[in-house]
Specification:
The radius of gyration is 24 Å and the shape is globular. It is 35% helix and 22% strand. The model has no long low-confidence stretch (mean pLDDT 93). The two termini are 39 Å apart. Strand 12, helix 11 and strand 13 form a beta-alpha-beta unit. By secondary structure, the protein is an alpha/beta fold. Helix 2 packs across helix 3, helix 13 runs parallel beside helix 15 and helix 17 packs across helix 20. The strands form seven sheets. A nine-stranded antiparallel beta sheet has the order 1-2-20-21-22-23-19-18-17. Among the domains are: 115 residues, Roll (Luciferase, domain 3); 132 residues, 3-Layer(aba) Sandwich (Rossmann fold); 145 residues, GMP Synthetase, Chain A, domain 3 (2-Layer Sandwich), CATH 3.30.300.
Length: 617
């Protein structure tokens, strides 16, 4: 519970009740008391609404080459969507020949995606990293084979030319905002004049129409194409406004970088702005050194009303908020709530944001989170403002039923509702495997009551069931909670950890260092020293060993006591599925591909690179 002596900024958030029923198998069925309200048949009904009600309000904004904000109003967006809709109909595109978008977030991307949904043609926003960072195009080639697109769009034709040449189906039209010879100019599509066919096509779009395909990151296998229907998107937005009435009370203004090929950025954030008549400033930054500066520049100019990010984004932002009072004053000036997802937010980062808000405006800004996935559109569980804390995921929101099913000694979260995908495109086997016998989608996440006698407090995240393993003693290691505790203990020297020990005698970790923080610890060293020398410095190793020894002192047994650590000197690989383009680390893929490092952890005697935790050889 938060410290009640410091006021939290008043904001329109809802507290809702649930009914919990114990099941014969030892699990639970949890249902919200209130029913979900009505929602549109298709998402672009909201675009038409706001174009009538507030035609001159800014909907989308992005940085132009000059540095000024290029803005599309609601009226301009609708006109562009209708013109592009005509161009789409002219090309006889369909669910069998959809649109693939290879580029990142941009106004052109948004307009084409909305136009496709408006006339009932699915589109698939695909991670640009599969084209620009990957070296073998294996994932992109797989996705193209599943989709069989009739049109591929890229902002920069030259940048994506090699990937397109290697993977595009024969006969597929290539469209680019900045085309190369042989590509169609996006401006040509925008120049079309909408006929009555556009309105007729929109009238046929209904709840079961496929709006888009979102491909999961493919960290353990080739990416799956998650079917997203209009019912999923529209019901999810109704769930959001019923849970967070602040979105209706004031049109949201957000500054957001989260990629639209992921459900958090593309469904949750773009959708809530459109649904509630807000404004989205497309953030050209990223939460990493050398890219966070663009985010900071944007936040110096634009004061968001709600702010969304992954934990790493908040972690990178905090030092700038500490240093720049003007930035703090702008950022917190009209902020009503913050929200994170994708991983656990370290408590020190959360505490820093609270302290900075109090220092700047005399009150906290509520920080919220929940639990969702690409398959849930993504909003499914959410914390109330009274029971939001690191590791908590809240309660099922109105419209969502939660089943807790016993699996491997834990309770797996499973959900059912109008926001749940019907399955994976052209993949019946994985579709069947994703649902249980009652039709609940299986998250694969373990959940536990915060307090079984007070279910209104919600649930806490207990880790991915597929990541848990047994030591050679038969003791289960719950990876999720242990990993979160270790990241907190090792901050700021370590960004993330991989927990090893399956069928071994004890737990050990592979640690991904924050090289900048390690350099700051040994600031007396030559600035030109290679990273490997910095990581080998005895002061860095001692600080990590001490932190692990302190954590081990709080451990309750062998399942959460780390005995050895190894600092990784090579970053996670996108090609090998070790990390997603959003920065999420995949535990299983890292262990599979770093087998030599794992072997080094358990070698006897250990090499000099291995950090031994005090009292454990």
């Amino acid at each position: 519970m938060p410290n009640t002596t410091i006021r939290t900024r008043d904001v329109a958030l809802r507290t809702w009740q649930v009914r919990c029923e114990r099941q014969q198998d030892g699990g639970w069925l949890v249902r919200p008391v209130d029913q979900l309200g009505d929602y549109p048949r298709r998402l672009t009904e909201r675009l038409e609404h706001w174009a009538r009600v507030t035609p001159e309000r800014a909907f989308l904004a992005e940085r132009a080459a000059s540095g000024a904000w290029q803005i599309y109003t609601y009226a301009e967006t609708l006109a562009a969507v209708r013109a592009l809709g005509q161009a789409i109909l002219d090309r006889d595109l369909s669910v069998e020949r959809p649109i693939a978008i290879l580029s990142g977030n941009s106004i052109a991307h948004a307009l084409l995606g909305l136009a496709a949904m408006h006339v009932g043609v699915p589109y698939a926003p695909i991670s640009p990293a599969y084209s620009l960072v990957a070296t073998d195009y294996a994932r992109l080639r797989h996705i193209m084979g599943v989709l069989t697109p009739g049109l591929i769009f890229a902002d920069d034709g030259a940048a994506f030319a090699a990937a397109i040449a290697a993977t595009a189906p024969e006969g597929c039209e290539i469209v680019a905002a900045h085309p190369r010879p042989g590509m169609t100019a996006f401006a040509d599509l925008l120049a079309r004049t909408a006929s009555g066919a556009v309105a007729a096509a929109a009238a046929k779009v209904g709840p079961d129409t496929i709006a888009k395909f979102l491909f999961t990151s493919g960290s353990t296998a080739l990416p799956k194409g998650v079917i997203n229907t209009q019912r999923m998107l529209c019901s999810n937005q109704q769930m959001l406004v019923e849970t967070y009435p602040v979105l209706v009370a004031e049109p949201p203004v957000i500054v957001d970088w989260l990629p639209w090929n992921h459900t958090f950025g593309g469904n949750h954030n773009v959708g809530l702005v459109l649904n509630n008549g807000g404004t989205l400033y497309i953030d050209d930054g990223r939460p990493m050194p050398g890219a966070i500066e663009a985010t900071v520049r944007n936040l110096r100019e634009i004061a968001p009303t709600v702010y969304f990010n992954v934990p790493k984004g908040y972690e990178e932002l905090v030092p700038y908020l500490r240093r720049e009072r003007a930035l703090r004053e702008t950022f917190f000036s009209r902020l009503r709530m913050m929200f994170y997802a994708g991983a656990g937010l370290a408590q020190p980062v959360w505490d820093s944001l609270d302290a900075l808000a109090v220092q700047t405006c005399g009150e906290r800004i509520v920080m919220l989170t929940g639990l969702g996935s690409t398959e849930t559109a993504p909003f499914a569980l959410a914390c109330s403002k009274d029971y939001a804390a690191s590791g908590m995921v809240g309660l099922p929101v109105p419209g969502v039923e939660l089943r807790l099913a016993p699996v491997q000694g834990k309770l797996e979260g499973r959900v059912r509702g109008p926001n749940i995908t019907p399955g994976y495109w052209r993949d019946e086997a994985r579709t069947r495997a994703a649902f249980d016998e009652l039709g609940f989608y299986k998250f694969g996440d373990a959940l536990a009551f915060v307090d079984e006698t007070a279910p209104f407090k919600g649930f806490r995240f207990e880790g991915r069931i597929s990541e848990d393993f047994k030591l050679s003693t038969g003791t289960w290691v719950s990876v999720g909670p242990l990993r979160a505790a270790l990241i907190t203990a090792l901050t700021p020297l370590v960004r993330d950890v991989v927990v090893a020990g399956e069928n071994r005698d004890y737990v050990a970790i592979l640690a991904l260092p924050d090289v900048a923080a390690c350099r700051a610890l040994v600031a007396d060293r030559d600035a030109s020293a290679p990273d490997s020398e910095i990581l080998a410095d005895h002061r860095v190793r001692a600080r990590i060993a001490d932190a692990l020894a302190e954590q081990a002192g709080r451990a309750t047994g062998s399942s959460n006591r780390v005995r050895r650590a190894l600092l990784l000197t090579t970053p996670p690989s996108l090609d090998r599925g070790e990390i997603t383009d959003k920065g999420s680390l995949n535990q299983r893929a890292m262990l599979d591909h770093r087998a030599a490092d794992v072997a080094a952890l358990y070698a006897d005697p250990p090499s000099a690179d291995v950090i031994i935790v005090e009292g454990h050889q």
